[in-house]
Design goal:
Length: 416
């Protein structure tokens, strides 16, 4: 199984090598204090950057600061840049040829055809120009796995600081420690504890295998043609329609009010008794069958889990794409958990006024003593669920929008 760290900058946090603006590589901090990935080779050489993809039996792919590599490993830098022009040509020839193949029998959706034609024009223009206007600020370095002695990955807080430092173009990011970078970022009024901005456009495009290309097309079709969405709880997913984009709170409130997992959706959907979410993908089986029957190549699925005893509401959202071999794979996922004890006045008021919710709550209130506290708790769980869904939606839209601008980047990777 491949081990892949997604390069979805600003959606998922990745570690990066920093820019050496002073033209010199200062003394590196100890590995325990690093803010970037460190790959130590058996030859004694050390490379600092972002590990994008690591195949245990193949190669490790890294994104490395162009300037850092230029000064730290001039010989390796020359080997890398010597291949850039040929690789760039290969990227746009591959893109043009694939698009021309798709347009040989044009799709029936005018918006999609327009997008594909514009991409063909762009690819041809890039081939005509021969080289990029500006060199990318990161270069790609591929390392044979059996040549690696050790790999070190920093903790998420260190990764965030590196990303922010790179965005602000601080000097010597790859050789400075966390506190040093945080001090300089603070001077620039930058909060390095929040998600960093997207700088994925600073990477040069790379040739794509058929799986990555299929995933990109699935995202484009989902966005430009007709989205297919599923929502539910546990293993039970229901297709969403245009009028029902928000999460259905009635099952959530029912679960909170009864505090019994096996009653969730019982009254609403017959005998369906889904279990709590887990990390396997069995919950997507019915959705993939429906997607295949609908002749789409990608869909989004979202499921809700409330833990009454833990006072948490969790929303898990994924995007699933069909691969060339017919299999369906999760190419993006996000889990958002919210505290159900936190007051959310505006959202709670909106929930309490919903007609469907009122029916559930009126039944409980009729029980008398203690009912008000139960209703208050249920509404608060509903508000936490809505907050979690809104946050998950925002992450999905970032992911979706990143891959519908162009079909040659940024890189799209995922674990099987």
């Amino acid at each position: 199984m491949n081990v892949i760290r997604p390069f979805l900058l600003g959606l998922a946090i990745c570690s990066f090598a920093g820019l050496t603006t002073a033209g010199q590589v200062n003394k590196a901090v100890p590995a325990s204090q690093t803010v970037v990935d460190i790959v130590s080779l058996k030859s004694g050489r050390t490379i600092r950057g972002a590990v994008i993809k690591a195949d245990p039996v193949g190669t490790v792919t890294m994104a490395v600061s162009r300037e850092w590599l230029r000064h730290s490993s001039p010989d390796l830098f020359q080997k890398v840049i010597a291949k850039e022009a040929d690789q760039r040509k290969q990227v746009f020839e591959q893109l043009r040829n694939r698009l021309q193949g798709l347009l040989a029998v044009p799709p029936g959706e005018p918006q999609l055809v327009f997008f594909l034609k514009k991409e063909v024009e762009r690819a041809e223009q890039q081939l005509k120009e021969g080289k990029a206007d500006q060199p990318s600020q990161f270069v790609w370095v591929d390392i044979e796995h059996d040549s690696i002695a050790k790999m070190i990955h920093p903790a998420p807080d260190r990764q965030r600081a590196a990303m922010w430092a790179w965005s602000e173009q601080l000097a010597n990011v790859e050789t400075r420690d966390l506190h040093d970078l945080q001090r300089e970022l603070k001077q620039r009024m930058v909060d390095s504890t929040i998600p960093p901005p997207d700088i994925s456009d600073r990477l040069a495009p790379r040739p794509q295998d058929d799986r990555e290309w299929a995933a990109r097309l699935a995202i484009v079709n989902y966005t430009l043609v007709k989205p297919l969405d599923f929502q539910g709880t546990g293993d039970l997913l229901i297709r969403s329609n245009e009028d029902r984009k928000a999460v259905d709170l009635a099952p959530v409130l029912t679960k909170v009010l009864t505090s019994q997992v096996d009653t969730l959706l019982k009254d609403l959907l017959g005998d369906g008794r889904p279990g709590p979410p887990d990390n396997n993908r069995d919950w997507l089986k019915q959705a993939t069958r429906d997607a295949a029957a609908s002749s789409v190549t990608g869909f989004r699925a979202t499921r809700v889990d409330v833990k009454v005893e833990g006072s948490q509401a969790t929303v898990q959202s994924v995007f699933v794409a069909q691969m060339p071999n017919g299999n369906w794979e999760v190419v993006w996922s996000h889990v958002e958990t919210q505290d159900a004890t936190k007051p959310r006045v505006d959202i709670e008021a909106k929930i309490a006024g919903d007609p469907q919710v009122k029916q559930v709550l009126e039944t409980v209130k009729a029980l008398g003593a203690g009912a008000d506290d139960q209703v208050r708790q249920a509404i608060r769980f509903g508000a936490a669920t809505m907050a979690a869904q809104q946050a998950a939606d925002a992450k999905f839209f970032e992911f979706r929008d990143r891959y519908v601008n162009h079909l040659d980047g940024p890189p799209l990777t995922w674990s099987k």
